Amino acid sequence: MALTVPPPDCSLLLPCDPALERHIEEVWTARLAKEPWLFNGTKFRLHSFSLMPSKHPLCPHEDQTRQTQCDSDLCAAQSETKLTNCMNDLQRESKGDVPSIRPLLTLTLGLTCYKDYLGTNWSSQVEELRQRGEVEYGDPLALLAQPLGVGAVLFTHDGHVVLIRRSQRVAEAGGQLDIPGGHPEPEVGWMMDGCGVRDQRPEAVVSELFSSVCAEIRDEVVVTDSDLPVHCSLTSDEVRSLYWKGGAEAHESTDIVFLSRTVSLEQLHRSSPLWSELCPSAKGAVMLYQRVRPDGDQSMLHKGTTAH
Questions:
Q1: Which of 93, 100, 104, 119 is most solvent-facing, going by the fewest CB within 10 Å?
Q2: DSSP string across 173-229
Q3: Residue 213 — φ and ψ, nearest 5°?
Q4: What's the rounded Cα separation, in Å, for the pair 77 and 83?
Q5: How far, in Å, CA of 292 to CA of 286, rounded?
Q6: Cα–Cα distance for residue pair 73/125, rounded to 1 Å
Q7: Which CATH class is domain 149-296?
Q8: Which residues in the chain are classed under CATH 3.90.79.10?
Q9: Where are the alpha helices (DSSP H) in 35-125?
Q10: pTM (predicted TM-score)
Q11: Beta carbons of 140 and 68 less than 8 angstroms apart
Q12: What are the pLDDT digits (tens) for 42-95?
């Protein structure tokens, strides 16, 4: 699969809406009063994405693929269905006369920040913001930050999947199980100048999306020899030992959990007792793994780093 990232469009920032800005400031002030360790930072804003065969007409599902971050199984199921539609299109196309079709994932990014994320996507008024976005901008996601996240299903050498128990000190999904992950940093790929972008380097953005996954594994699990697709040469016991030594982001989790790849991961579903303990990103990773099953299809393991 190849990944493309068009040059960022500064119009894809949150709209200049005084009421929204006041709400975000109120939420941020309240969160800092309870959690003074929080800090703001620039993030990539995921405006939209499309998945299609290379040199193929626009995927008909592209306009339907924008999703809000939500911890409900309904939203996760809707995202899975829309991605499945695109994947099915690719599979049908590949059965024709074309010998090999390389899927092309295109991300359209803007800029946002962690403060805006907590004040919109994680706000108690998120449904109201969605309704306002639909009415005022014709887009239910127009008033949401939509920061791009990364995560990894990490396999140990003895065939276990690594999960971490999120600390109660983190801003989202405290106490739930998650995969190693976080947010790519725009400063790595772009030179920032106030609220704008001074130097656009989209090829560096693509590189950051992949390298940030390995950086999160290093900082959260203290494993430094991972690669993509994400495997490491250490056993689960060795990973556990490194984890308890503590890494740069040790404060973000309180425990490490290992699942069997062949039993626990592939059989995990919404009625499983463990499902309710997973945070949204972990649920999405499990559903994507079960859908794609990369270990059984080597054609899905190509890491494209094309930037346009």
A1: 100
A2: STTSEE-SEE---HHHHSEEETTEEEE--HHHHHHHHHHHHHHHHHHHH-----BTT
A3: -60, -50
A4: 10
A5: 10
A6: 19
A7: alpha beta
A8: 149-296
A9: 73-94, 114-119
A10: 0.73
A11: yes
A12: 898 998 888 776 554 444 334 433 433 333 344 444 444 555 555 555 555 545
